[in-house]
């Protein structure tokens, strides 16, 4: 079977970028130019996807909705109130964040420099996939919410194009890139992440994050590995 590769650019949005992003990832701007160079290399890709975190203003992942401080952990109950075998409501511990990527705001827009190049691309086919728009649940993966209930169009778009290999870049290495790449692997794609085209929320824990990738069968690679592949 011939290999077909998709490049997925995760959440290159102003709220994740310094200097003004509400949830700015340190040194996030460093990845913009390398990612632009990747998307312009049209012979490398059979499909391009850019994702956007896209929240309603009262999204459940915002600390402001819980009268607590950002970056703390809260326990969330299953959106459909499912219970475990012991008749207890299913819960998940999740970090809450500053308000970010609210639909229609500047912070939710894709970086302008990236967007300009993206708009100029005529091939291969490209899609923007939004996630996070259901108010009552968190999304990290661009494939589905954290409970695995609501699926975005990611899987069907990849299948429609016969994609075998999915390569992830963007923000943040330890959250949305990580969970997206893990889901891609779980869903049967060859899943890769280009490490130098990502930055982490918790840069001091990058070794732990590397382990999570390899544990899930995701290959952590560099740009130079692409031409060799
Ligand atoms: Zn979000």
From TrEMBL:
Domain Isochorismatase-like spans what residues? 5-224
Q: Show the Pfam families listed in the entry.
A: Isochorismatase
Under the GO molecular function aspect, what terms does this record hold?
metal ion binding; nicotinamidase activity
Reply yes or no: does the keyword Hydrolase apply. yes
Q: Which domain of life is it from?
A: Eukaryota
Q: Which pathway does this chain act in?
A: Cofactor biosynthesis; nicotinate biosynthesis; nicotinate from nicotinamide: step 1/1
The record's EC number reads: 3.5.1.19
Q: Which GO terms describe its biological process?
A: pyridine nucleotide biosynthetic process
Which keywords has UniProt assigned to this entry? Hydrolase, Metal-binding, Pyridine nucleotide biosynthesis
Membrane-spanning ranges? none
**UniProt xrefs under InterPro entries:** Isochorismatase-like_dom, Isochorismatase-like_sf, Isochorismatase_Nicotinamidase
Instruction: Tell me the protein family, please.
Output: Belongs to the isochorismatase family.
**PANTHER family noted in UniProt:** LD05707P (PTHR11080:SF2), PYRAZINAMIDASE/NICOTINAMIDASE (PTHR11080)
Protein name as catalogued: nicotinamidase
Q: Which organism is it from?
A: Pichia sorbitophila (strain ATCC MYA-4447 / BCRC 22081 / CBS 7064 / NBRC 10061 / NRRL Y-12695)
Q: What is the lineage of its organism?
A: Eukaryota, Fungi, Dikarya, Ascomycota, Saccharomycotina
């Amino acid at each position: 079977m011939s290999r077909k590769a998709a490049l997925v650019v995760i959440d290159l949005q102003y709220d994740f970028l310094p200097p003004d992003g509400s949830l700015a990832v340190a040194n996030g701007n460093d990845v913009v130019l390398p990612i632009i160079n990747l998307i312009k290399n049209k012979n490398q890709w059979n499909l391009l996807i850019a994702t956007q975190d896209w929240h309603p203003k009262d999204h459940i992942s915002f600390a402001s909705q819980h009268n607590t401080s950002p970056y703390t952990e809260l326990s969330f109950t299953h959106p459909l109130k499912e219970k475990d075998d012991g008749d207890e409501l299913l819960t998940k511990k999740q970090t809450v964040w500053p308000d970010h990527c609210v639909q229609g705001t500047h912070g939710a827009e894709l970086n302008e420099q990236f967007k300009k190049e993206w708009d100029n691309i005529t091939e291969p086919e490209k899609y923007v996939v939004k996630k996070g728009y259901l108010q009552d649940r968190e999304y990290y993966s661009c494939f589905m919410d954290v409970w695995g209930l609501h699926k975005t169009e990611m899987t069907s778009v990849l299948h429609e194009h016969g994609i075998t290999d999915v390569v992830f870049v963007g923000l943040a290495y330890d959250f949305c890139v990580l969970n997206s790449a893990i889901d891609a692997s779980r869903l049967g794609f060859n899943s890769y992440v280009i490490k130098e085209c990502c930055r982490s929320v918790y840069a001091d824990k990058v070794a732990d994050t590397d382990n999570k990738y390899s544990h899930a069968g995701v290959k952590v690679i560099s740009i130079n590995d692409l031409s060799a592949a």
